[in-house]
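Tutorial handout. Part one gives the primary structure; part two gives the three-dimensional structure as tokens.
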Amino acid sequence: MRLYISSTSPFVRKVMVVLHETGLADRVDRLAVGGTPVDPGSLPLGKIPVLERPDGPALYDSRVICRYLDSLTGAGLYPEEPRLWDALTLEATADGILEAAVLMVYETRTRPENLRSVPWVEGQWAKIARALDAVESRWISHLSGPLDIGQIAIGCALPYLDFRHESRDWRAGRPALAAWERTFSARPAMVATVPV
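Part two.
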């Protein structure tokens, strides 16, 4: 299999963590690619990650790739119902956090300064803050349970906020989530996939 990546993409990191957690990391070649919303390159949707596989068309986005990798190994990162719905909701929450955080980066890196919108950027951060508050108030018990895709997704979203938006201090007012992140970030799969 071949995985198209960017070393700083949080969506790529989620797939890489799943590769490590499922024992597939050595079975996938990684190819670095670039692109932006205004120059997407030749990949489907102009987004990464993309996984080429021997038994069918390329897969994208990270949610589809992670589900596929889990199905290859039966690792159980997608638990049985009813826990499945919580895991998928947490994954969607994390992906929403990441989408907003990436849009904030794009606004300052790809849009000309005279066209940038501070209220729009702050609106993206408000989405992130609401999502983090929901995780702090509702999802800590799930995060503390058996490993699943929801934990991996949240575990990749939080360090990305440190990586790109450190001055925002997502930990303020969220002690339980901050404590969980400290523990989760020490997992070997997380340590092996820290962006450079």
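Part three, for discussion. The chain has a mean pLDDT of 94. Residues 83-109 form the longest helix (27 residues).
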